[in-house]
Design a protein that fits this description.
- The structure is a single chain.
- The radius of gyration is 21 Å and the shape is globular.
- The chain is built from ten helices and ten strands.
- The strands form two sheets. Strands 3, 4, 5, 6, 7, 8, 9 and 10 form an eight-stranded mixed sheet that branches.
- By secondary structure, it is of the alpha/beta class.
- Bound molecules: zinc ion (ZN).
């Protein structure tokens, strides 16, 4: 008897599971030096990719960026001053293993939570910035994320400077239940107040912006922008297909689809982002002119 017969019953059919390649398996080129583009499959020097704001040199695919990379690529050098960086989540619902998971993510991402907030300048224009980071709990929105974003909006109000947010999130944080959902209302109220005081809000949706985040602050900007091919949506494709019993178009929930249907103001490539945002910031200053 062969060894494998001990494990497989003769008539058992092989189950058909979709195999999702792991990040390392997908990247079948020497790690570090070279990077393979998941979109066009071409290989390039990681250093050159980084210099190009992590935009593929061949097809323009936007690789995911963490909050540190965003700050470095978007703000003027050394202008960022972080606020509320030490705020950390508790476990209000006593959700099993939640604190351990938070600790693991803190070590792995070197972040205390899934959003980084602070003050900085873009070509000399002062702003308050919030950047969600998918490397911490998939950028999910817990109480601390909501609180830090709210405090950042209030800081922008206090300083009378524009508020810019980069979103990247899997949605509400399930380990915080209803408290997580409350953050949608809290951040929305803060934005409304800021807006009534004349504040400028720019939202930049990046891959992926989903769930309660897409349904609250991500969509409440005076300008709602997205990066090319960003996944933006509320519920997942399968859930929607099952409930409406219709097949959805292939490009459903992409930035391009949302732009075509009037839910976005523009799709902006990372390579042009600083120039375009600078323009918007400058036309909103007294005497500003548009050079879009
Ligand atoms: Zn590519």
């Amino acid at each position: 008897m062969a060894l494998k017969d001990l494990f497989v019953k003769p008539n058992q059919k092989k189950k058909k599971y979709a195999t999702i390649p792991t990040e390392t398996a997908k990247n079948d080129v020497p790690e570090g030096i070279m990077t393979k583009c998941p979109s066009c499959k071409k290989i390039m020097y990681t250093k050159e990719l980084a210099k190009n704001f992590k935009v593929c040199l061949h097809c323009g695919h936007h690789f995911q960026m963490n909050s540190r990379e965003r700050i470095d690529s978007f703000l003027d050098e050394n202008s960022f001053e972080e606020i509320n960086e030490n705020m950390i989540s508790k476990n209000p619902l006593d959700f099993p293993d939640y604190l351990e998971k938070l600790e693991k993510d803190r070590q792995k991402s070197k972040l205390n939570e899934a959003v980084v907030t602070g003050i900085g300048t873009v070509n000399g224009n002062r702003i308050v910035l919030a950047i969600m980071d998918a490397s911490f709990r998939m950028g999910s929105m817990g109480s601390v994320v909501g609180e830090k974003i709210t405090l950042a909006i209030e800081k922008a109000d206090e300083l009378s400077v524009p508020f810019i947010i980069f979103t990247a999130s899997g949605g509400a944080r399930m380990q915080e239940g209803a408290l997580s959902l409350m953050q949608m209302a809290k951040t929305s109220v803060a934005l409304k107040r800021f807006s009534e005081n004349g504040g400028l809000i720019i939202s930049m949706m990046t891959y992926p912006t989903t769930g309660g985040v897409s349904a609250s602050f991500a969509s409440l900007g005076d300008f709602n922008f997205a990066e090319p091919e960003a996944l933006i949506g509320f519920a997942g494709r399968r859930v929607i297909e099952q409930s409406i019993r219709e097949e959805l178009p292939a490009d459903f929930q992409t930035a391009e689809f949302l732009l075509k249907h009037g839910q976005l103001d523009a799709i902006i490539s990372r390579l042009e982002l600083v120039d375009k945002i600078t323009n918007i910031l400058e036309i909103h200053q007294p005497g500003g002119e548009l050079e879009w």
